[in-house]
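Posting this for the archive.
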Amino acid sequence: MNFSKLLCIVMIAGALAAGLCVAPARLCAQEIDFGRIGAFESMGSGTVRAGSAPKTIVDDTEQHDVFLTIWNSDTDAKVYWKPLDGTATRTTVIHGTGVRAFQTDGEFKIEAVGPDSRSVKYDYVLVALRKQ
């Protein structure tokens, strides 16, 4: 196992472990095929405020896994993503804090909803998927 793959596994495990500290009573995620992970791309954090345009995390034509941790929120977050099966863009509403994993086909945005004084703080890990 090379260093970059080990680093990717450690980062994903760290993000998931951090998210479990703030996990809601009901945890939902897509089934993830870890064998398809090709390369670590990036990780980051941000704050999105209600009333602002959605923040774009992925905007390309490649397939990705996105591990999203919402660690501080006083409103709901809307996530816009395109599934791997090529169907239309989906919207997932996340209430409060928690961890979610998404497999997306080149589109992933997050938005805070509610009054302008509300915000959502998040971290993410983005990995590329190998083509099947």
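The longest strand covers residues 55-73. The chain has a mean pLDDT of 84.
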